[in-house]
Prior knowledge:
By secondary structure, the chain is of the alpha/beta class. The protein has a single domain (3-330), classed as NADP-dependent oxidoreductase domain (TIM Barrel, Alpha-Beta Barrel), CATH 3.20.20. The chain contains 12 helices and 12 strands. The protein has helices at 37-49, 65-77, 105-119, 138-151, 164-176, 200-207, 237-240, 248-265, 269-278, 293-300, 309-319, 327-330; strands at 3-5, 12-14, 16-19, 54-56, 85-90, 124-129, 154-160, 182-188, 210-214, 226-227, 230-231, 283-288. Strand 5 (85-90), helix 3 and strand 6 form a beta-alpha-beta unit. Helix 1 packs across helix 2 and helix 8 runs antiparallel to helix 11 (309-319). The relative contact order is 0.12.
Amino acid sequence: MKYKTLGNTGLFVSELCLGTMTFGGNGVWANMGNTQQDEARHLIARALEHGINFIDTADIYSFGTSETIVGQALKDLGVRREDVVIATKVNGPMGLGPNDAGNSRGHILDSVKASLKRLQVDHIDLYQLHNIDTVTPIEESLAALETLVRQGLVRYVGVSNWSAWQVARALGHSERLNLAKIATTQNYYSLASRDVEREIVPLAAAEKLAMLIWSPLAGGLLSGKFGRDRQGEEGSRRTTFDFPPVPVDHAHDVIDVAATLAAEKGVSVARIALAWLLHQPQVTSVIIGAKRLAQLDDNVGATEVGLSADDLARLDAVSALATEYPAWMQRVREVPPKPPLRPAPSAPD
């Protein structure tokens, strides 16, 4: 397992992160998984054995149950607080009241206390705004996060599912107001959907932000269970909850090439898809949401899959984004025509 700094910070996180959206299985989250306390403890223990030191959750996952399960599992395993990096998120509706969601100062300050209690810790390593809030001024949200950092309740702050311009605007405000700077951006990114490469990847590179990747297998579509003639197992996530949206024909082209490479290397399609992400220079950590130990072990095996320049070229070609304006214009490299050569002056008679 390799470790990378969390963006422009001194905190090291594993290149794979254990995602816990499958923990709890309450309400709509049952479509993602139904991992309960004992199963979760075994998964977290195995992840730690593999060298994973990074766990990602959110208050909205099963409406707090995921955080509760993570906290209890770490306590049961006797994990030192210093040996694990815990990330969680705030924004989603946690009640029926008008102030039970969003990125307002009130909701952030209330939510962090609830998350700390459920996780049974005195601080959160990475606290992320899970989505945008079109009502709350961004300065208010950033000031609230600064308060948490100053109080020692949160170590680093990040965002998830924001557009590049929104992140850039937040970075400008935090610099102008001397507030805690956003260190991470968590985004959907996979071989089946490379939209983040248009603007978010360049922004992350320019601002030295850590990129944390959710749904790297496109909701199980790149797991190897799906293809042109395979629709997956009955009851599997993609068959019950078609998310995130993916152009099916394009995805099948990608799967064909990934499956060929997987057969050549004797590994699963999932390992190829994960390995491709691990080879992307701007990616800091890939979040894997395994439901079973065997699935977790296979996903971790992606860290050992070497992709040659030719392998990467094959995957890049089949998964490439269509070029959009203004990118195609910015890539034009016209060389000004050279001026015509003047004839050499004739020597005087």
